[in-house]
TrEMBL record:
Domain Alanine racemase N-terminal: 28-238
Modification type N6-(pyridoxal phosphate)lysine: residues: 44
Gene this chain is encoded by: LOC107482979
Species the sequence originates in: Arachis duranensis
Signal peptide: none
Protein family (similarity comment): Belongs to the pyridoxal phosphate-binding protein YggS/PROSC family.
Keywords: Pyridoxal phosphate
PANTHER family cross-referenced by the UniProt entry: PROLINE SYNTHETASE CO-TRANSCRIBED BACTERIAL HOMOLOG PROTEIN, PYRIDOXAL PHOSPHATE HOMEOSTASIS PROTEIN
CDD domains reported for this sequence: PLPDE_III_YBL036c_euk (cd06822)
Requisite cofactors: pyridoxal 5'-phosphate
Molecular function as annotated in GO: pyridoxal phosphate binding
Protein name: Pyridoxal phosphate homeostasis protein
Transmembrane segments: none
Keyword DNA-binding: no
Role description: Pyridoxal 5'-phosphate (PLP)-binding protein, which may be involved in intracellular homeostatic regulation of pyridoxal 5'-phosphate (PLP), the active form of vitamin B6.
């Protein structure tokens, strides 16, 4: 695969168009409308110019997973981008992230009370609108530092819901520690949603599922995903490897 393709004019925007089509088809196969599945274009490691190209083609929803990178890129890009933070967030970076990115719309990786609390305080201090959050669940069954255990997700969701400046909007999973996913990961997140909705008394369509990446987003949509995070299929392969977790 030619990694330089994404750097060519128009390549990323064209790739996005084909992703949009595939998402629409997968949504139809699962008896949902395309509007029910959000595409987060994951632009980590990619230059502002390429993000701009995808923006100019009409897309508004982008994801980054390193705080420093997002803090540098966001001010160089239009304010009506809806940024999703999808990386591991250390609590001492929460304030920097919130203060530097006014159009941060979602943090998808809340996996303990401490980080929820730090984000809540940062938003309160800034006086901005509430921050939407996903609770990240470790669905791999393997010991991993990231994501709450499925058995603990109800408690964390309740904690998030009690925070004044956070808006709970759903559950997120990465899948396996190597960033691949299995149908079991998607099924586990689906089951977590049932428990959460029962426990806090909300309908399932008010609890989103963020799952699926480049390699498996169609399957994820067929298994209920409402938010797919797609990087390399839109922007081309990343030039340097994923940060070692
Ligand atoms: C990088 C990343 C993605 C996108 O991965 P691709 O396989 O390039 O689509 C999705 N989710 C998270 C959390 C990521 O870090």
């Amino acid at each position: 695969m030619a990694t330089s393709a994404a750097a060519m004019d128009g390549a990323a925007a064209a790739s996005l168009r084909s992703v949009v089509q595939r998402v629409h088809q997968a949504a139809e196969r699962s008896a949902r409308t395309p509007q029910q599945v959000r595409i987060v274009a994951v632009s980590k490691t990619k230059p502002v110019s390429v993000i701009r190209e995808v923006y100019d083609s009409g897309h508004r929803c982008f994801g980054e997973n390193y705080v420093q990178e997002l803090v540098e890129k966001a001010p160089q890009l239009p304010e009506d981008i809806e940024w999703h933070f999808i990386g591991n967030l250390q609590s001492n970076k929460a304030k920097l992230l919130v203060n530097s990115v006014p159009n941060l719309e979602y943090v998808e990786t809340v996996d303990d009370e401490k980080i929820a609390n730090c984000l809540d305080n940062a938003v309160a201090n800034l006086g901005r609108k509430p921050l939407k959050v996903f609770v990240q669940v470790n669905t791999s069954g393997e010991t991993s530092k990231f994501g709450v255990d499925p058995a603990e997700c109800v408690d964390l969701v309740k904690y998030v819901k009690d925070r004044q400046c956070l808006e709970f909007c759903g559950l997120m999973t990465i899948g396996m520690p190597d960033y691949t996913s299995t149908p079991e990961n998607f099924k586990t997140l689906w089951n977590c949603r049932s428990e959460v909705c029962k426990a806090i008394g909300i309908p399932e369509d008010q609890c989103e599922l963020s799952m699926g990446m480049s390699a498996d987003f169609e399957q994820a949509i067929e298994m209920g995903s409402t938010n797919v995070r797609i990087g390399s299929t839109i922007f081309g392969a990343r030039e340097y490897p994923k940060k070692q977790k």
